[in-house]
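Quick one, T. Sequence first:
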Amino acid sequence: MTSALSEAHLQNEEAAYAYVEARVWPNGPFCPHCGCAGRIYSIKANATTKVRIGLKKCGDCRRQFTVKVKTVFESSHIPLHLWLQALTLLCASKKGISTNQLSRTLGLTLKSTWFMTMRLREAMREGSLAPFGAGGGDVMADETFLLRDPDVPPGKTRNPNWHEKMKVLTLVDRTSGRARSFVVDSLTVADIAPILSANIAKEARLLTDEAPRYITPGKMFADHQSVNHSKDEYVRRGDPEITTNHVENYFSVFKRGMRGVYQHASKRHLHRYMAEFDFRYSHRIALGVNDRQRTEAALKGITGKRLTYGSTRRQPRAATVRAD
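Structure tokens:
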């Protein structure tokens, strides 16, 4: 990790701007305000006159801007090379990296670091709406439970049962190896059927455990097969392709990260943590994606996404049909 953080764009501010500009503007700079791409002028940085590094001016609308405008970096006073360090560490840490650890590593306040990681998780949020299982592939579906759900009145026991916990539904596409997760309020057929319908192709084969909640939604697809975990069946004896082990493996990493690294996540922000774990799982080593490539993939998601600190305090939790 030390060698990874020694690259020029992670240590030098000018190199950081050049690095991000090459990825946000692969065909040359354009004005984020008016869209002009022809008459863009660079303004030389000058600390004395407070001219910022990477500052440019549009010849059409005459407005100034940097590559951070219209990205998750916008209006941030944190140096860009520290943003790239945080992104590198977040992408390279399989189970995540705590805000406290990142704060100490970067030398930033805890509040700034927390907001930084939330913006980076927004960059990791999947933008594709393409359904899983297109062409007749297998899609595994399963749910897991985490901490206490603040929307459910607590029971009489100190240890909450699964009804009282926050609920996460995850889909894994066997063909692409990608994961897509959703925070749901309940696991009734009425809640999960729209999610499955919107995110799984009709020609796909749905693979689940024996939970009866999947029986009716499973009829929407070309085939529905299940394994019976209550009888210790995790792989169909006659057909090893029928299993939910892929999504179970996803949950094993997710729960270790949430319990051992993050320890707590409010329901309001849980969908962003899910986006982080979805992203790393969908760009994992087993799919031929190394740490550098994973960071590059995350950097492609910074544009067109704006997250303010005030919105993270006021924003209601994301809808259950999609985690983004």
